Amino acid sequence: MKRILVALCLLSCILLPTSVADEQSTDYWEVDLDNGYISTKPLIVDSQVIVRTSGFWTGEDRPHVYAFDLYSGQENWRFKNAASTNHDMSPLMHVEAGNGTCGNWSEMIVIGWTDGKVTALDIEDGSLIWSAQTEVVTWGITGAMALDGDDIVVPTRQGLSRYCLSDGTENLRIDLPQLGWRNGVTVTGDSYLIGNEEGVVNIVSKSGDVTNISIGDGMIRHAPIQTDAGIITHLQKDTGSEIYLNEQLLSEEGYSPAIPYKLDNDIFFATSEHVIWWKCDSNCTFQGKTDFHANGEITIQPNQNSTSIWYPRNTPEGGWATGLPGQELEMYTTSHDTYTTAGAGFGESGEMAFGNDAGVLMVVLDSTDHALIIDGKEEFESDSEESSFQVGPEHIVLVALVIGMVVFRSRKDSAMVAKLGVLLVLVISIIALPSISEVWSKEVNELSDSPGDWDDDWPEEWKDTQVVVFELPSGEVVIGGLEGHENVEQLTDSAAIQLGITIEKQTYSIGDMIVSFNGEELDGWEFTIDGERSQLGISASEVSEASVVRWSPA
Amino acid sequence: MVMTDGVHGPVLGPVEMLVVNVVLITICFFLLCRPTHSAKREILILTSITAAAAASRILLEPFPNVQPLTVMCLVMGASLGARRGMAFAVMATMISNAVLSHGWWTLFQATGWAGVAFAGSRLNLVMQNEVAMKRLIITAIFASVLFDWWVSLSIYTVGMTIGEFGIYLLNGLPFDALHAIASIASAVWIAPWLANLLHEETAELAEPIASGESDVITA
Do A430 and B63 touch (CB under 8 A)? Predict the structure, then answer.
């Protein structure tokens, strides 16, 4: 019995330390957050980096919020929400310690979750200070919260709630008729502005009265922007997007608008096609645009004498661009680049924190090192995973096991040699598993690529081109002869435009999802590529130059 | 309310989660409620080893599908019998999943490892305190792979074709292989120690308890 208890105590002690970042150099560290996409900007607060994950939709893990030591990458604390529904894209809110009419509060991180919870965590240790519950209509909170004096205003799925920062007491609740998605809230002098999926900006007075402005037929998926000229919104539409000043259309833009950012009188927008710059004083004037694909958070990097604007690139190539629309952008790339919607986070002393759908948090401590800011497809200097061999703990274990086997062999203890040999095989298997699994998965996927979906009634000239089939309730519509599209989303968009089919999409952490064709939602829509279902989303599902994509009701 | 789907199947709402918990705890209760000669001592042994097993699972979480619990279930089943072994499996799964993540898949993991423990109790893997190592290793390999496939059923949902499920299982074969290798290592390193420990502890429990009158020799 004693041995059991001793072993138990030892195991418990070993469990206490948590994950530590993979140190790459003194100016850079990274850590793989195994449980999710990073869809929102990491925060750098004093000597901590705080980041949230939104769930990979794989494995048993659920979204977390983590705090790491800025300089060492050592994990300080983590907070998991097991009930989250995996679309946690509400930006983290840092709140300084303070006091107000409803009490005092310590420095905290406030988090909105997709299960409708609002949690205030102590920034020092991640302990729960208070928690509140808001409504859930499939999802809960997905938009940006805002501070209003000693209150925090939370955009909920179908309204907004206001809580006292000291204890989470709700002191205002407004139910609204429209559903919201990434529906951030803006605080003005006397009201709160909040958009929704029906293109309406609700103006909620601080006493609770509601008026609204109907902007247009589309979705407002960002906190409306208050300027001297009026309220700016970037309306997401089936056919692209539109930028509005109040109800006045300023410009028509591309698909899937990013969350716009206001810096003084300058407002920066982005879509799948451009980054765009407008200046709004008493009137709004266009400043410039540059080709780029950004759908997430636009952030700023304060420098000594200037400010840089950063845009995450939401393509398989990923990375972040910096610069002003209308001018050439500079790319910042890493070895973990992939689809990215999370903005870059910046510290007061030049530190930078990056995260993307790969779920790897990357922290650069010295951004004045210009060798790290690079053009094109180069990588962080410190990400030298292919450049040279580095001794890791696993190599030390391997050597120790081999030495152990040699020693016991010399003592003719064959039983121990066999036992160490088994351990050696296990360690080698663990090291090799990622590579083997990747290769194996590709082989398996090739096996399943066989069915095909060619219809002999289609024109011969469509052969070896891209074809899209829409099985609409009114009948099947097909278009072929398309080319040059890389994924299902691009191909479907192109086909729909040519056929005059309207598409309604929703944006999730895993990318866009099609909700309806020609307004027909039915029980959902699913697609096949060459007759086979894809395991991935529309933006991640690649198509060949001879693929047939078929959309049918679920 | 089923809220969403993931690779481990539907994420359960509070009511469904409650049902899963009640089912698993009820199973444990009925497996453990049989009276014994020394209930307190036995409960302490079972609890300690269960906690150690759960802790080991949490400790090894960074290593994909390295699950010493599979071999521990076999040995526990072989040493303590089907009821205790299955109860151990269910409890260890629930405790470790409270940290690792609890959900629909817990039901499959708990029943899977309980099945492994049951198999252990029927295959003569431990005689007294001696482990039949060759038999244990072969059983562990099969148990590891079958357990993985059983747990994979948790992702099987309406609308998923057999072919798609087959592709899912095929994709997981490297992980199944790693589970099997880890089980061999566990069998070699942990099983003899655990079997010996259980033998010592349970042997003490099995000693006859003195009762009735005895003659007293007085000087």
Answer: yes
